[in-house]
Design goal:
This protein is of the alpha/beta class and 207 residues long. The chain has 8 helices and 8 strands. An 8-stranded mixed beta sheet has the order 1-2-4-3-5-8-6-7, sandwiched between helices. α2 crosses α8. The longest helix has 19 residues.
Length: 207
């Protein structure tokens, strides 16, 4: 079973230092809605929490999970856009300080930043310096249409957010934003199949 430590509404498991799974957009706790979300739809990336927990358990790796709904604080935005309240600022800083702590305690780290979208493909986001064609090709070989891949090098619509852009600049760190389509996330059988196959792929990624 996955081991969890609860800290200020952010949960972290304690395993190896090689991989870190980050779930920032599937929290349930709502308080002090951001002004942006009063005029725009701030929805969760449903079932990314379940995917993150199962993936971390399979990989025996670290996990950070944000309990707050993104209408309160958005961990994948710059501070200026992420929160409007003091409580949002406190937990935003705690979340990112935890990521920095894992980075500082690891010589080589892959951060898997898991999100969801309503399209039909898997989108891999990166910082632009290392296209993820190899990873895309391996997912394609398992039957998941993925961009980018070696035959479609177009940067996807969701090509990496604040977490990807910020932490990919650290030496020895690779951050991959993984945008999963609804058909994988909302179907338990397909979700579990993806977790099994992706965990095998990512275990050898970068080796």
């Amino acid at each position: 079973m996955i081991r969890i430590t609860i800290l200020m509404l952010i949960s972290i498991n304690l395993y190896s230092q090689d991989i870190l799974v980050v779930i920032s957009h599937d929290g349930d706790f709502k308080i002090l809605e951001r002004d942006y979300c009063k005029d725009n739809k701030c929805v969760n990336d449903s079932y990314t929490k379940e995917i993150g927990y199962e993936l971390a358990d399979r990989l025996k790796c670290n996990l950070i999970y944000n309990y707050f709904h993104r209408s309160t604080v958005d961990m994948n935005r710059s501070p200026k856009l992420a929160y409007d309240s003091k409580i949002g600022e406190i937990f935003y800083n705690e979340f990112h300080n935890r990521i920095k702590s894992y980075i500082s305690n690891s010589d080589s780290l892959i951060i898997l930043d898991i999100h969801g979208h309503i399209g039909s493909e898997i989108m891999l986001g990166f910082d632009g310096t290392e296209p993820l064609y190899k990873l895309g090709d391996e997912l394609m070989s398992e039957g998941y249409y993925t961009i980018p891949n070696s035959n479609n090098t177009t940067r996807p619509k969701f090509g990496g957010g604040y977490i990807t852009e910020t932490y990919n600049t650290h030496p020895g760190v690779k951050v991959i934003q993984i945008e999963l389509p609804k058909y994988i996330r909302f179907n338990k059988i397909k979700r579990n199949k993806f977790i099994e196959e992706f965990s095998k792929i990512i275990s050898k990624y970068g080796t």
